[in-house]
Amino acid sequence: TQGGSTMTASVGTAVRGAALQIGAKLLALANQDSKSPLAGAKVEDVEMLDGRLLLKGDPSKSVAIKDVMRRHRLSEIAETHEARPSQERNKYATMAHGAQFVEVKVDPDTGMVRVTRAIEVTACGKIINPLASHSQEIGGVVWGIGMALHEATEIDHRFGRIMNPNLQHYHVPVNADVHEVETIFVEEEDTVVNPLGVKGMGELGMVGIPAAIANAVFHATGKRIRDLPITPDKLL
Question: Same domain for 61 and 97?
C-alpha cells in the first residue's frame, strides 16, 4: 500500500524553515559578543537544543538563548517561512509505503473469523514521534479489522434510511477482537520528498489490513470474498 496524510510533512517543513531562520538571527546576535563561545561559527555548524545554541562538533561550546535575548532586550524573535513541494519530487515516487501481514483463525462450524496476529510494516521516511506513530499504526490496524470483519452500513432500500445509525447496531472492533499487533518502521533518508525527510503515514495502517485478512481467509478456507465485511454467512 502507499499514501498517507501529510500534515507533519507539510507543516513540519515550514516550521523547520522558520526555526532555521530564527537560529541564524540568534547566532548573529550571539556573535556580536567578541567573547562568545560560538564566535566565528557558521549557521550550519550550530543547532538549537534544550534552550541553547550549541556547536554541533563540540556541545560544550554553547550559549543560553534566553541570555542572548536578554542581552539585546528582546522578548521574542519571529520569522515566517513558506514551504512548497519541490519540482524534483515529480521525478520520483515519494509516497510512504507499507506491507501488512495477518494470521486468522476460522471456525469451520460457525464461520467466525478471528485475527490472532497482525504485523504492520511502514516505510515513511524519518519518524518524528515514535510513540505517536506506533499508536497511529495500531489504530489503523484496528480500523482495518473493523472494515474487514465488522462494519457495514445497513440501508432500508424502501425509504433510504440508515438502519444501524448508532454503536448499538453498527459494530466496531472491541478489545476482544484485537490480539497481537506488531508495528515495524523502516526508516529512510529521503531528501527529495522534503527537507525534513518525513512522509505521510496516517492511512497506511488501515488500507492494507482488509486485503490481508481477505487473503488469509482465502488461504484458510479456499473461499475468495470480494465484498466487505467478511461475515459468517459468506463463508458457510
Answer: no
Reported as a pLDDT band with limits 50, 70 and 90, residue 1 is very low
Residue 145 sits at the vertex; the CA angle it makes with 142 and 146, to the nearest 5 degrees, is: 90
Q: Confirm whether 203 is a catalytic residue.
A: yes
Any domain includes 97: yes
Strands 52-55 vs 180-185: parallel, antiparallel or unpaired: unpaired
Which three cell numbers mark 58? Answer: 563540540
> Across the beta sheet with 62-64, what order do the strands follow?
46-49, 52-55, 62-64
> Could you tell me the pTM of the whole model?
0.80
Q: Is residue 170 part of a domain?
A: yes
Q: Model confidence over 158-191: pLDDT tens digits?
A: 999 999 999 999 999 999 999 999 999 998 888 8
The CA radius of gyration of the chain, in Å to the nearest whole number, is 26
Q: Within this chain, do residues 133 and 183 fall inside the same structural domain, yes or no?
A: yes
123 in a structural domain: yes
Whether the predicted pLDDT of 192 surpasses 90: no
Q: Is 143 helix (H, G, I), strand (E, B) or coil?
A: helix
Cell numbers placing 1: 500500500
**Beta strand 97-106 pairing with 46-49:** unpaired
* CB burial string 13-42: b at 16+ within 10 A, e below: bbebbbebbbbebbbebbbeeeebebeebe
pLDDT, average across residues 190-207? 84
pLDDT of residue 141: 95
- Whether 145 and 225 share a structural domain: yes
44 & 112 share domain: no
